Amino acid sequence: MIMMTLDQFWKFLNTVRKKSFTEIILCLFFLVLILAYYCVNVFHILPCMYQLPSVLYLTHMLSLTFMVFNLLANFLAVMYADSSVIGRLLTISKYTSKEDITYCYVCQCDVPLRCWHCDKCNVCILTRDHHCTFSTTCVGHYNRRYFLWFLLYLSVASFYEIILISYYTYYKVTIKFSDLMVLVPFQSVLTGFHLTAGEIFVVLLTLNFIAVTISSLLLIYHLDKVCKGLVCHEKQESNYDFGLMRNLETVFGEKWYITWISPFIESKLPYNGIDWQSHVNQYKTK
């Protein structure tokens, strides 16, 4: 559950300030782009296509609002939910052998199973999956759920945008073959940034095609890992494969089947991300 106290908020802001300039720019660009698409749809495309207030307009607006809310909220949750070892008591059970424990000289602590140090975040991450450049943080034990729902809503929203913009341009905008030249590198610089309506919608459609392709492929890849009980660092291992339902609970929590509605739905994770070996032994004895 995402509950932000004042101290946690300042800690979050301080963490963001330490990120690289490139990551911060990409993150802000992504957030602005989502809001810009939403405004173009609600205040331009939909009013031009449907009379206000019509049932179709309200249906599209509510659908877009729901998708954008989950897209932004899950994206911010990935950034805020801390999966690092900072401030956590790294207790190890009797089931864990000394060979399974390594020492991180940067964090100056024993590193539990499935925990790796991130050079960009400069900290060890519990059940580290990978470092996400756009969210400027690592995806690990406590924010992996939000990252996967973010990918899902990005795929759905991008596909929705392609249909909506294509329908709008078919009836309202005339796209010429010359408008496709806007996709040629440096073409906009040479023409002095005098974009026509056709060129603008060519760019919007192209961005959505790129977004839906990349996000869908990433979603398929990461869901396959989740279903097999793996993270990106792990190959075809079966040490942490507890079965499909249990694997889903490990990432999405006990209420995994409704977490798609909102990132604010509390769904307790069955494991703490530290003592994996005891969980493996408990699972095998069932």
TrEMBL record:
Lipid bilayer topology: Multi-pass membrane protein
Superkingdom classification of source: Eukaryota
This protein's UniProt keywords: Acyltransferase, Membrane, Transferase, Transmembrane, Transmembrane helix
Catalytic activity line of the entry: L-cysteinyl-[protein] + hexadecanoyl-CoA = S-hexadecanoyl-L-cysteinyl-[protein] + CoA
Gene Ontology CC annotation, any one: membrane
EC supergroup of this enzyme: transferase
Pfam family, one: DHHC
Transmembrane regions listed in the UniProt entry: 21-46, 58-81, 146-170, 200-221
Signal peptide: none
GO molecular function list: protein-cysteine S-palmitoyltransferase activity
Ranges for domain Palmitoyltransferase DHHC: 99-237
Location of the protein in the cell: Membrane
InterPro entries linked to this entry: Palmitoyltrfase_DHHC, PFA4/ZDH16/20/ERF2-like
E.C. number: 2.3.1.225
Major location (coarse): membrane
Family designation: Belongs to the DHHC palmitoyltransferase family.
PANTHER family assigned: PALMITOYLTRANSFERASE ZDHHC16
Annotated domain remarks: The DHHC domain is required for palmitoyltransferase activity.
Name the record gives this protein: Palmitoyltransferase
Source organism per UniProt: Aphis gossypii (Cotton aphid)
